[in-house]
Specification:
The protein is of the alpha+beta class. It has three helices and five strands. A five-stranded antiparallel sheet has the order 1-5-4-3-2.
Amino acid sequence: MSVKINLLHRNEWNKHGLLKYSELIDQPITKCNTGQDESGEYGEWYFVPEAPLPSGRRVIYYAYFGAHLPREDAPWIFAELFDPTDDELAEYTLRVQQWQGQPERDPQP
């Protein structure tokens, strides 16, 4: 079963060797479910590194963003970790496909 870690829990985040926020924002993130409201753009983003972590685990980073959320607001930034077992890798592949299948724009007005 995957493990979800919030950047707010920095000790746990660092224990797993996850990217620091300053490193994460330099990655080629993909935005999805974006929209526009009176305060500006909002939506989600995700990043799937090509290589596993040194532990062999796979990771998907994702977050929610918007003008009402500070850029480095830890409660809105997550990492989902998957062990290198057949079942976990199947779940990882499914989650990556789910993220890739998200629309670029939020279909809601």
